Amino acid sequence: MTINTARHWLLAIDVVGYGKGDDQRHRSIQRVLLELLNEAADAAVLHRKRWTIQSTGDGELAIIPLTESERRLVDEFIRHLDRLLTQHNAWHIEAARLRLRVAVHVGVVGPGDNGYTGQAVVQVKRLLECGALRKAVDAAPEANIVLVVSDEIHRGMISQGYTTYRSDDFRRVRVGLKEYRGQAWIHVVAGKAATSGYHQGTS
Fold this sequence. Notes:
Elements: E1 6-15, H1 23-43, E2 52-55, E3 59-64, H2 70-89, E4 100-112, E5 115-117, H3 119-129, H4 131-139, E6 145-150, H5 151-158, E7 171-177, E8 180-188
Parallel strand pairs: 4-6
Antiparallel strand pairs: 1-3, 1-4, 2-3, 4-5, 6-8, 7-8
Helix pairs in contact: 1-2
């Protein structure tokens, strides 16, 4: 899908430990990941067919129109994805578990000759790659998902009570990677059941 230069939600996903697998494992991961992402989006009443998705093999960068619900993306989609990962991982040995790093941001994105342009694209990638997120993944081996959100997402959605998260579910971190310097918020998703409830209001 072609996008115009405008504000979008950005979702970046990366499979933990993907490089350790062989070719057959990589094919399996890619297939299962797409199945789980599609199912989680459907469960959260999101419309992945409207998303502009750039595959990275071991994950993806999704550029999502603002017509999609921020609450459903940040909250329900993540919780449904965690639930599905729990079900999937229950049938696999430890070495074959599927775990994810996930980053969410919002900002201006535009088309480019070799992908998508805009500081928002740079930022969501830096959040996904940052050392603080990788350390959080290593420190919580039982977790299926470790989520990082930008300060904009935390300040506008989570801290205002529009989701089932509490503000103290997230830990503030400083991100300094390559040319990017900023603040973000990390949450180790702890396997709570997916829910459509929230504290107040909608988005």
